Amino acid sequence: MGKKLSKVDTTFQFCDGGSCRKAKSEIAIREARGYLRNNGLWDTTHTIKTRCNGRCEDAPTWIIQPGNFWYKNLTPDKAVSIIKSHLEKKQPVDEYLLYREGWSNVATENERSITPVVFKQKTDPILGEVLVARSFASDQHLYPLFQYLFHDPKPISVQPYDADIIEIKSSHQVDYTDDYEVKINGNELQLRLTIAGIPKDISHEIADRKVSIAEVIWLKKTTIFTKAIRLKNKKGKHLVTLWIKEEDITTWNHILTIYLSMSPDHIKVSEEV
To answer: Between 255 and 268, whose confidence is greater?
Structure first.
């Protein structure tokens, strides 16, 4: 029988992603769950292993609700003291906090700076003089991008590896129910790309179409298509290029703002060549 959620008043979200597991998160989780069971607190609390909480530099991390309290560098001793404080005193342990609601900054000594995406001038062996922004190749970015481009057709053309350019005129199905691959199928295009993380023993065929390099390209010369997204595998093999028409400002602005987190009014271009 499942837990009666109407009785639960506190939820503990234990990160057990890769970095947290390396930092021995499981030991702290075991102590926390053991304490809750032995003290008759299991039915009024809920514990969840969340995979990645997005703060690998502060591993292991927890999130406690209500209150949106984030904890860092968890150990078995810290785990029990945090639980006791929240459940008995209804207050956090400030010295172990990474963040709490209302703070403008996180309390960390390990903050990782995020390098903003910028366009850089390059001479491409195929396209010539271009501006290139090295963009994001994870499924968190690529799957929403494919949904945007293909569910409701945009005035784009697609150039798969070793094939002619295909103009997209109708909506396509974007299917990401497979463990690793996204499939784009419609009247004009049938395309399969690997966008999820893959194990080392995966088949060569799936690994060969794994997107590892994503580039947003802005051609300096004026042509029908002057902007593009080019996807390559780890070895630099071209997988597919998505061409955007010069007059399609809406799609270009979406790519800048959503995909690159860049304001269309303040496009960042590096002076370095």
So the answer is: 255
